[in-house]
Amino acid sequence: MPIEAPKYRFTRSMAGGAPEEAGVYALWKGDELIFLGRASNAVTIRACLVAHLDGSCPCTRQATHYTWELSLQPATREAEALREFQSRFGRLPRCNGEAA
User: Fold this and answer.
1) How many structural domains comprise the chain?
2) Which domain holds residue 62?
């Protein structure tokens, strides 16, 4: 998988423990990776996760778990992870393109 890291329950309290740093993150519904995103510039991984919890996108609201990876170049790492996912599964994660 593009991000090899422990999975955390996708709840407000658990997201509050996510890093306040730049990087990439993945949202999961059970064992299915449904969204890959990045946190860069002044937006942190924690802020992105909370935004998904508060957001209006029905697709990412289905997430049950999340993972994250710190990165000095989040845009590059996100693109790499998306290419890897697409190469392996022949498609993007189902919420990419729906959520932003």
Assistant:
1) 1
2) 8-89
